[in-house]
Structure formats: C-alpha cells, structure tokens
Design goal:
It is found in: Cell membrane. There is one protein chain. The protein is mostly helical and about 450 residues long. It is globular and about 60 Å long. The C terminus is likely disordered. The chain has one domain: Growth Hormone, Chain: A (Up-down Bundle), CATH 1.20.1250.20. The longest helix has about 35 residues. It starts with 11 loop residues before the first helix and ends in a 15-residue tail after the last helix.
C-alpha cells in the first residue's frame, strides 16, 4: 500500500525545504574548501611540508569517502533531516576545534571529524531532491544543488581570506563555525523528509548491511554513476581544495588576489555551465555518459596546454583551463542522475553514497600523489617549489582520467544491456528524449 501524500511534489514547500538543505550544503562546501586559501598559512602555522599539508585534505576526504556507504544506509533508514542535523553538529565542533588547534596532530583530527560531518550532507540533499521533486524537475534541481552549493567555495576563496587577514586564524575559524548553529535550528524547524505521511524508509539491520550494499553495487547503473563521478570531479576538487592556489601563486607567479579571484570565477562558471548541462542531460538522457566523457577530454586537453606551454602559460590559457576544470563539477553530478535511472527510491541513499565515493577517492589519491611528487622533486619545502615541479606533479591526473574513461565506456555498455533485459523499452524511451522512471519510484507527476 502506498503512503498517503500530504504535500505537493515540486511546489513551494519542496523549494523551501530544498533551500534550507542547500544552505547546509553550501556551509559544508565552505568548510571543505577553507584550507584551499589557508593552505600557505597552515604550512607556516604548523611548520609542515607539502606532503604533510596534503595530509589535512587527504585524511578529510578519506573519512568522507569511507563514510559514504554507511551514511547511505543510515540515510535510507532515518531520512535526510536526521543526517543533516548530525552533519551540522560534527562540522561545527570540528571547525571550532580547528580554530583553536596549535599542533599538527590536533588540526588533522579536527579535519577528520569535519570530513565525517561533511559526508552526511550532500547525499541527504540529493535524497530530498529525489522525493520532493518531479522526475522532469530532478536533473535541473540536482545540477542547481551541486553548483549553487559551490557558492560556499566562493565564500572560502575571498571573504575567508579577508577574515584571516583581519581576525587571525583562531577568531576567523571560530566565527565561521557559529553559522552551523543557526542552520541547525532551521533544519529542525523547516525540513521534512518526505511529502508523504509515512516515509517508506528501509529499516536495514546491521547483519543485512553487506548484502544490501552488494545488491546496489551489483547494479551496473550504480557503477556507471560512480565512474562518471570519479572521472569528472577530482581535478576540480584538487584544484579548489588544495593545490590550485599554490600552483597559481608559487608556480605561475600570480598574486594572491588574482588567484582567489580565479577560484571565485571558476565557481560562477560552474553554476552557469551546470544550467546548460542540466538541459542537455534532460534532453538527451541516453547520451549522458558521452556528455561526461566529452567534458573530461576537454579538461585534459586544457591542462595539457598549460603544462606544456614554453615558460609560464599566458593568463588567458590558464583561465580557459580553470573553466574547463570547473565544468567537471556539473559533469560529475550527472553520475547521480545516471544512478537514479537504475535505482528505486528506497535504495537511492545507498546508490548515491556509492556514486559519491568515486570522485572523492580519485581526488584524495591525486591530492596525495601531487604532494609526494613535489617533495621528491624539490625537498626544500613549499617556498622552494618552482613551475617545473608543479608541472611534474600535476601530470599525475592523466592516469586517473584514462582509467575513468575506460570504465565509463565499459559500464555504459553493461548498463544498457541491463535495461534491455530487465526493463524492456527503457532504452527506446531515452533514445526518444524521454526520461526512464524506475518502477520503484512510480510514475506520478511525470
């Protein structure tokens, strides 16, 4: 028996709930990105090398990625509001601890807790999109979620730089941690898990966890979404969270203001390109994975131009590269749209969690390898790195792009075979430009 619907889907209440949840995601992106502009200060504050500096963000992303599967299960069982509350509590406490940390070990522990809180946020917001919006609205709202959430990176790029300059490390990070308290109240008061009177969450017992994850992971659509996320997202994450700012300032000789400005412009471009991509995804659902591959190839080509340019690459080429990298964010969001085509809503939390593992796993591995290559090529520390050192280090991205493209093509074929076998007519629906709705979701409101 289906649950009684008590609120309209895709109407005013849905947008209000999404808006509050989106604000929480923006805060999570801000906290996640804060080290991107504070990296040089952190290296000086804790007297650490590039490899140890990378440890901050790598550990944060390791925790984030490792939490995705259990978070997905908890999300399907307890709903989005409980997970948003838990994530806000952890992030607020972690950023407050980071503000007052005076040792490298204490700071690393704070970033690990921050990663755990951050892990609960994005997939919770995506679940809200899945249950509160119409199928035809979902691709656009998903893109808006990912791209508008990145405004948190803009706040981290410029205003945080100003706060650090005016208030110092401790007061700046303590001030921004207080935002979580305000949003915590908003989530408790305004967010509802479902437009239905009783949400059909899946009460999975711990002994059934492994089997439930294997079932979702065994679906080729989940893997196609994961590899799409893996391939498209990591370069932008690495650039924005840690190595882009030092590469621009120390490698290419840009001023700190210009580097911060480019990070902000990248986020603005990601929002604009995300809107265009949402239209393409909705119009050509059968070719979503090819759209992802096209963006990844563009990204790799632009990086090649910057890295192989004789001497310092001109500003305009660097900007083109940065915008291409920023387009990888919207492309990675397509992974969730792909998984949704293969997954009933009762399992969407687990599927989204598995998809979300992809990009952050690639990002943390790339981030760590860049730090290792920098230290091996120039043991003198952050101040000693030159453009050639950064060129060599940034080249570690290419194997990840190559692996990802191969896997996307592999699971695209398997995914289409799966749909033809299990859901006859689904491929033809998508070829005609109509979204395929998994039978577990239903067809209301399409």
């Amino acid at each position: 028996m289906s649950a009684e619907q008590v609120h309209d889907i895709g109407r005013r209440r849905a947008w209000a709930i999404w808006g509050v949840s989106l604000a929480v995601y923006m805060l999570a992106v801000f906290h996640r990105s804060s080290l991107g502009v504070a990296g040089i200060l952190a290296a000086e504050r804790y007297d650490i090398t590039a490899t140890r500096l990378a440890t901050f963000t790598v550990l944060q992303l390791v925790v984030y990625a490792a939490m995705q599967v259990p978070v997905g299960v908890l999300l399907d069982r307890f709903g989005s509001r409980a997970m948003l509350v838990g994530g806000l509590v952890l992030m607020t406490l972690a950023q407050l601890g980071f503000a007052f940390s005076t040792t490298f070990a204490g700071a690393v522990a704070a970033r690990a807790v921050l990663g755990a809180g951050d892990a609960m946020i994005f997939v919770s917001v995506i679940r809200i999109v899945s249950v509160w919006f119409l199928v035809r609205q979902a691709p656009l709202v998903t893109q808006l979620t990912g791209m508008t959430g990145q405004l948190g990176a803009i706040v981290a790029a410029a205003p945080l730089t100003l706060l650090l300059d005016r208030l110092g490390w401790t007061r700046a990070f303590a001030t921004v941690s207080a935002i979580g308290v305000v949003l915590l109240v908003a989530v408790v008061v305004l967010v509802k898990d479902s437009p239905y009177r009783s949400d059909e969450v899946v009460a999975i017992k711990l002994r059934a966890l492994a089997q439930s994850v294997r079932t979702v992971w065994g679906n080729p659509g989940t893997r196609l979404g994961m590899w799409s996320h893996f391939t498209a997202q990591f370069s932008g994450t690495v650039f924005a969270l840690l190595w882009g700012f030092p590469f621009l300032v120390r490698g290419l000789g840009w001023s700190e203001g210009a580097a911060s400005g480019l990070l902000m412009a990248m986020t603005a471009w990601a929002v604009l390109s995300g809107l265009l991509l949402a239209r393409l995804v909705a119009r050509f659902p059968l070719y979503r994975s090819w759209i992802v591959i096209g963006i990844v190839v563009t990204m790799a080509t632009a990086w090649t131009a910057v890295l192989l340019w004789p001497g310092v690459a001109p500003h305009w080429i660097v900007v083109v590269m940065a915008f291409a990298v920023a387009s990888g964010g919207p492309a990675a969001m397509v992974g969730f749209d792909l998984a949704r085509s293969f997954t009933p809503v009762q399992a969407i939390g687990r599927a989204n969690g598995l998809v979300n593992v992809g990009g952050f796993t690639a990002a943390l591995l790339t981030m760590a390898l860049i730090g290792v290559v920098l230290d091996l090529s120039q043991p003198g520390g952050m101040a000693a790195y030159r453009l050639d050192d950064y060129r060599l280090a940034m080249a570690v991205q290419y194997p990840f792009w190559a692996l990802g493209i191969v896997q996307i093509l592999r699971y695209r074929r398997r995914g289409l075979d799966h749909l033809r076998r299990v859901h006859p007519g689904a491929v033809e629906e998508m070829r005609a430009g109509r979204p395929f709705v998994h039978p577990g979701i239903g067809t209301e409101g399409i």
